[in-house]
UniProtKB/TrEMBL annotation:
<feature type="transmembrane region" description="Helical">
    <location>
        <begin position="225"/>
        <end position="245"/>
    </location>
</feature>
<keyword id="KW-0812">Transmembrane</keyword>
<feature type="transmembrane region" description="Helical">
    <location>
        <begin position="438"/>
        <end position="459"/>
    </location>
</feature>
<keyword id="KW-1133">Transmembrane helix</keyword>
<feature type="transmembrane region" description="Helical">
    <location>
        <begin position="43"/>
        <end position="65"/>
    </location>
</feature>
<keyword id="KW-1003">Cell membrane</keyword>
<feature type="transmembrane region" description="Helical">
    <location>
        <begin position="143"/>
        <end position="165"/>
    </location>
</feature>
<dbReference type="InterPro" id="IPR050833">
    <property type="entry name" value="Poly_Biosynth_Transport"/>
</dbReference>
<feature type="transmembrane region" description="Helical">
    <location>
        <begin position="281"/>
        <end position="304"/>
    </location>
</feature>
<feature type="transmembrane region" description="Helical">
    <location>
        <begin position="364"/>
        <end position="387"/>
    </location>
</feature>
<protein>
    <submittedName>
        <fullName>Lipopolysaccharide biosynthesis protein WzxC</fullName>
    </submittedName>
</protein>
<keyword id="KW-0472">Membrane</keyword>
<feature type="transmembrane region" description="Helical">
    <location>
        <begin position="316"/>
        <end position="343"/>
    </location>
</feature>
<dbReference type="GO" id="GO:0005886">
    <property type="term" value="C:plasma membrane"/>
</dbReference>
<feature type="transmembrane region" description="Helical">
    <location>
        <begin position="12"/>
        <end position="31"/>
    </location>
</feature>
<comment type="similarity">
    <text>Belongs to the polysaccharide synthase family.</text>
</comment>
<feature type="transmembrane region" description="Helical">
    <location>
        <begin position="109"/>
        <end position="131"/>
    </location>
</feature>
Length: 470
């Protein structure tokens, strides 16, 4: 039991790191066969798909996990409900495709969006199976499935890009990745759907899902608003550059933040009647996430001006500044993001909906004001907003359990300080070192920075791990 949390979170994180890296490591190849406009078209199409994918589960899988007793009829009812939802989302997405293409005056969006419409349907088919695996603690098996899916997507995108498929290589990667994950979850989960009859009332799950749908839609709007504004005002080429920077910025969320949140949710749900324990779990998650995320983000940000042109070609050099300016804000959001998980686990979904709505409205306003001034202004505003909104964000957590803002800041302090120094040192070196020298320096600096962040607080890390293990 002592290592349960680390095994679960570690296995999921390893698979997500592999998937995230598989999508980033191919960029030096793919970026030489696709131009920023094609990346911009893909980002514009994925804006609709991201919303549809969130609706395909609607949080009902999480609602099932919260149940203390397993009712086969209840799980079967949820499966058929989500299957119908997924099918409906696929049809609606295909109907939206021509309107979306006309809105942005980009004819390729019609066919891209039509092909990607299958993704929410595939997600809905696997949602209950994944929930069952998570409830049973089969995180390592989930990790293997996701790793295999990532490898399949990696092979697909490289093969098609080299063959001249252009943006369709990115489309095929997403479809193969999702299809393999769906097949794997259905094959290895113990859940087997029965005939679509004898449905049980799902009022509690629908209420839970309703609040989570609102949160998911608003949260996605928060992340996709810059994409829409940039595409509409600055054009597909600028959106392609922003999308490239986002692919690197999404690494901490996909590879580390997501898996930790999954494991933390289960842990908080079990401790939901002990407010202090939930607060300790949250603070512990901030400490571990800060150690995991701050150093690599700082290393890449400090050497981005050299590494982006080297790895992706000179065409993508402007993406380096976007990444660097937005890095602090994105890292801070991921490290502190388990407030939403906490409110969900404690069944305070209405408060979670209010929190994300407020945050999205404010963030949308500042981003909209920044877009006319260029991509760098948008990236700078993203970081500035995350820093300024943090006290308010933590205040929402304090409404449900005794989270100490000072304790959270202390949990992040050592890693943030060490990482800031590493960032400054690499940024200084990039003024005189060659790109290849910076690559070697960055590779050497990362383990050193991690060591400097871990060693001074080993005792605190052990306590945090103990808190998460229960």
């Amino acid at each position: 039991m002592a290592k349960t949390f680390l095994v679960n979170a570690g296995s999921l994180s390893a698979s997500r790191i592999f998937i995230a890296l598989s999508q980033v490591l191919v960029l030096p190849v793919v970026a030489r066969f696709l131009d920023p406009v094609e990346f911009g078209d893909m980002a514009q199409a994925m804006t609709v798909i991201i919303f549809a994918q969130l609706l395909s589960d609607a949080g009902m899988g999480r609602s099932l996990i919260r149940q203390t007793h397993y009712d086969p009829a209840e799980w079967n009812s949820v499966f058929w409900l989500l299957t119908c939802v997924g099918l409906g989302l696929m049809i609606v997405t295909m109907a939206i495709a021509p309107l979306w293409a006309n809105l942005f005056d980009r004819p390729p969006l019609l066919w891209l969006l039509s092909a990607l419409a299958v993704l929410p349907f595939l997600n809905s088919l696997s949602a209950v199976a994944v929930a069952q695996m998570e409830k049973d603690g089969q995180f390592p098996r989930l990790a293997v499935i996701r790793a295999v899916a990532g490898l399949a997507g990696l092979v697909t995108v490289i093969a098609l890009a080299v063959a001249g498929a252009g943006v369709w290589s990115l489309v095929a990667q997403q479809i193969v990745l999702t299809a393999v994950q769906t097949i794997g979850a259905i094959a290895y989960s113990h859940f087997r759907p029965g005939p679509p009859r004898n449905f049980t009332p799902l009022g509690a799950h629908i209420r839970f899902a309703g609040d989570n749908v609102g949160v998911s839609l608003i949260f996605s709007a928060q992340r996709q608003v810059p994409v829409l504004f940039i595409g509409a005002i600055l054009g597909a080429g600028s959106l392609g550059l922003f999308s490239m920077a986002q692919r690197f910025l999404n690494l901490p969320r996909t590879a580390v933040g997501g898996p930790v949140a999954q494991a933390v949710y289960v842990r908080m749900a079990k401790a939901q009647h002990d407010g202090q324990k939930v607060a300790d779990i949250y603070t512990a998650s901030c400490l571990l996430l800060s150690v995991a995320i701050f150093p690599p983000i700082a290393i890449l940000a400090g050497s981005a001006s050299s590494l982006f042109p080297l790895l992706l070609s000179e065409t993508w050099a402007p993406a380096a500044a976007i990444f660097t300016l937005a890095a602090v804000g994105v890292a801070l959001e991921v490290i502190t993001s388990c407030v939403g998980v906490m409110l969900q686990a404690l069944d305070r979904t209405r408060l979670r909906l209010w929190m994300i709505t407020e945050r999205t409205i404010l963030r949308t306003v500042v981003v909209a004001l920044a877009v006319p001034f260029g991509l760098e202004a948008v990236a700078l505003v993203i970081s500035g907003f995350s820093i300024c909104y943090l006290p308010r964000y933590l205040a929402f957590a304090q409404r449900v359990c005794p989270v100490s803002q000072l304790a959270v800041l202390r949990a992040m302090g050592v890693s943030a300080g060490v990482s800031a120094m590493a960032w400054g040192a690499l940024a200084t070196c990039s003024l005189t070192f060659t790109a290849w020298q910076m690559l070697g320096l960055a590779c050497a600096a990362l383990p050193l920075t991690w060591a400097a962040a871990i060693l001074p607080q080993i005792a605190s890390i052990r306590r945090a791990t103990s808190s998460l293990n229960g």
